[in-house]
Please model this.
Amino acid sequence: MSQIPNDLKFATSHEWVRIEGDVAVVGVSDHAQEEMTDVVFVELPEVGRTVAAGEAVAVVECVKAASDIYSPVSGEIVDANGALEGDPSLINSEPYAGGWIYKIKLSDPSEADAMMDASAYAGHIGQ
Amino acid sequence: MQDEVKQTPLRAQHEAIGARMMAFAGWNMPVQYRGIREEHEAVRTRVGIFDISHMGQFFVEGPAVGQWLDTVLTNHANALEPGRGQYTLMCNEKGGVIDDLIIYRTSADAFFLVVNASMIDTDLQWLQQHCPQDITLRDESVNWAGMAVQGPESAALYAKLFDGTEPPARNGIAEITSDGDTCLVCRTGYTGEDGFEFFCPAASGGKWWQCFLDGGAEPCGLGARDTLRLEASYPLNGNDLSPERTPIEAGLKFAVKFDKGDFIGRDVLAEQVENGPAVRLAGFKMTGKTAPPRAHYPVLHQGEVVGEIASGTLSPTLGEGIGMGYLPTALAAPGTPLEIDVRGRRFPAETVKKPFYKRGS
Model:
């Protein structure tokens, strides 16, 4: 059983967001990291870039394949987790904490409201 | 025929231990169980087992069968003593690779061939097309389950399961009878470690798989099989070999013998040996911390695209990005600076001598 914290919102493509004021912290779910296993490289988004919801913003690479990370929300990237450059496996070990990928200043907070809550996401991954 | 996904006789065993399955060469195969790195390490340091039931098994028999195989394969089949095997290639008239395979002489007038899963139909057609009337060629691929048991502890595991006996000598084959099954054991592999391949009747596959697991072999998927073979610089047909590339270009001259008489593709290969091939399959390493190199990424030298990656991965043993690609011969020598284009970003790399990993190093 993968972990699904109650205070997060989830996208169908397995990204999570944590709302902190007008900023969202974004990462990938425990389920997603289990599926990928052995993350070996993370290509982080550029700080200052403006993105639309659904846009590919980062790439998480495991040994076997590269996976695009799609921003679930629109806005401006205000921070990227540099720690992942030194230790990409943080995505595996702490998907909801040290494995966060970027922070984005929300341009439309209603987008996050429309995302799945923990129980809906549990249903989405058949758990 | 191509549309239906084929199932290995070991499917239930894979699913029971939570394998992640994926389509490979038309087969539903396990890509990993616990993780590629862990499985990779099991083979480098202990013993792992791979399901290779997708691979093809042909039996070829008849008078002068060795001489005939020598006309359709590049290595010297007829030089093999019974019980011995060799790596060889099947080429087209242009010297391009149809398939790479391992052949074993099982008696004076019989050979056992192990071919790539994706090439079973193509190889069979090609061989039938060139086969004289007095030679019989049987595709028995569906009748056999196959397992590759690989790693430094593989021979000890074999001894434990088969009354203290040793597997056949390197590149050898032996027929054994155990628990009512007639099985073929080949001392070969695709990982760069000691090991053997074990072929048994398909219906007994699950039993033998479990037997090796109970004996201590760790289940390994195609993901680890790929990282292991690439560290050892073994080519993968479809990635590193193709009908447009020759064994000479691929650096497989050791498996091409010219002193045995004529064979399909000989003229082109002889010319390339004489004058040197225009391109070579070069090995390269990423020189910094980078994204893993992957197949089809462009390879640049001094700002110009000079080729693309044929196979690439992050080497679990070395912790570095490694790969192979066809480059103009002048650039293929070790020490040539390269750049790899990863989604529009360029990362530094350098050609190196193959293999990337050698047992005992």
Observations:
- Residues 9-108 of chain A form a domain with the OB fold (Dihydrolipoamide Acetyltransferase, E2P) fold (CATH 2.40.50.100).
- The mean pLDDT of chain A is 96.
